[in-house]
Amino acid sequence: MTSTNSSKIIAASRTVIPVILSGGSGSRLWPVSRKSFPKQFWPLLSDKSLLQETAKRGLHAGLGSPIVICNDAHRFIIAEQLREIGILDARIVLEPIARNSAPAITAAALLVAEKDPDAILWVMAADAAIENTEKLIEALDCAVDTAVAGYIATFGIKPTKPETGYGYIERGEKLAAVPDAYHVSKFMEKPSASEAAALIQDDRFSWNSGMFVAQARTLLSEIQTFEPEIYNSVNQSVKDRVTDYDFERLATESFSRSPDISIDYAVAERTKKAAVIPSTFKWSDVGSWDALWELTPKDPEGNATFGDVFLDGAKNCYVRSDGIVATVTGVEDLIVVVTKDAVMVSHRDKAQDVKKMVARLEKEKRPEAVNHNRMYRPWGFYESLIQGGRFQVKRIHVDPGHKLSLQKHFHRAEHWVVVAGTAIVTRDAEEIMVRENESIYLPLGAVHRLENPGRIPLTLIEVQSGPYLGEDDIVRIEDIYSRQ
């Protein structure tokens, strides 16, 4: 573990800040990954989510807590997942609108530069998988030296197959200032199958990992040079940011003026300061179910399984069930994914096309395209159990010490039955304690609130009745989480 110790020495003498970008929806991993709870929050490869694994890399390298750039809807999920791995002081920065990676990285660089323009950002996506942490840290050591020399370093991953889903980097001349680092000759977009087959025969080419290491001042200088509109709009948005609960919320009006563009197009492909570190750690963007099959341990028949799954005569399949039992018989090279509200079956060769089906479902306005049956909220979660024409039954879980907003509905009444824990219910002018096996009725129009005052989770069954049961029939009067 010599490399880990050397990283800690570097970290002690140079400020290196992990920056995690968590804005993707991961639609090619539908139906597990959806906009309401995308792939970075799922434990797809271990007992930790991809976000947690990403954050832990900074800890392994001896670095401090990260900056996480995300959207408003996921802020409490991210805070909770970081808390679970012992990171309590991350800076969670909220984008008011999705504007791709260049504005997000610009915001992070501006925030870092407020304190130390020479500090180094290690920019990572929240949803990649990396093995061989020691080799990663060795490459990071080299990337930090490259950043100190004034370059924007990226990691070039040695290809293991002719992958058409990744971008490629062509290595140029050696960097005089840093051993083991090279100038970037060019970046290439995702190639065709024949182009990819040729590229992996040339050792000058590597996969583009999408990670960047650079000083804040270097990033900002290049962004200001090539994309002044991004720099100006994001700079104003950072200046006008506000603190919201434990989060930093970028100003909406100025941020929305920023062009929607990736850091690759905005800077990496145009700058003279791009450098690549040839790297041998295993990396994947976990961009499809086929990629996940490759990363998952397999049985002697080449099958990778997760959950309540039974196979008979299946070969080289990926089968996952997050809900009911899934059985697969006598097939090869299939992907079968079962959730509580959807089933997806695809040939492994067509794994990239799942995204097309998601687009079709969105066009048909199917809620399954974007929302899970279980919806997470700052106070816990709820999930629909039964839905009829004028009624719906939900399970509601409230974490200890949390409470829902003070609210009312115009179109539905509610009946709550507590099945575990104790609730304090506000109903108009009353405040009522409801214990396990007790219930309470909330008539249409009643101002109400649910709170868990105890030390164990509160679980209740909610029966809604009325002509309209949509989630937008909520008028929030007061909310400790600053939701509208």
From TrEMBL:
Catalysed reactions, as listed in the record: alpha-D-mannose 1-phosphate + GTP + H(+) = GDP-alpha-D-mannose + diphosphate
Instruction: Indicate whether Transferase appears among the record's keywords.
Output: yes
Single Gene Ontology MF annotation: GTP binding
Domain named Nucleotidyl transferase: residues: 18-299
- On whether Oxidoreductase is a keyword of this UniProt record, the answer is no
Entries under CDD domains matching the protein? cupin_PMI_typeII_C, GDP-M1P_Guanylyltransferase
Any GO BP: polysaccharide biosynthetic process
* UniProt keyword terms in alphabetical order: GTP-binding, Isomerase, Nucleotide-binding, Nucleotidyltransferase, Transferase
The UniProt record lists the EC number as 2.7.7.13
Recorded superkingdom: Bacteria
Sequence ranges assigned to domain Mannose-6-phosphate isomerase type II C-terminal in this UniProt record: 366-479
Q: Which InterPro entries does the UniProt entry name for this protein? A: GMPP_N, Man1P_GuaTrfase/Man6P_Isoase, Man6P_isomerase-2_C, ManC/GMP-like_b-helix, Mannose-6P_isomerase_type2, NTP_transferase_dom, Nucleotide-diphossugar_trans, RmlC-like_jellyroll
One Pfam annotation, family name? NTP_transferase
Q: Which family does it belong to?
A: Belongs to the mannose-6-phosphate isomerase type 2 family.
> NCBIfam families in the record, alphabetically?
GMP_PMI (TIGR01479)
Could you identify this protein by its name? mannose-1-phosphate guanylyltransferase
Q: Which organism is it from?
A: Neokomagataea tanensis
- Taxon lineage: Bacteria, Pseudomonadati, Pseudomonadota, Alphaproteobacteria, Acetobacterales
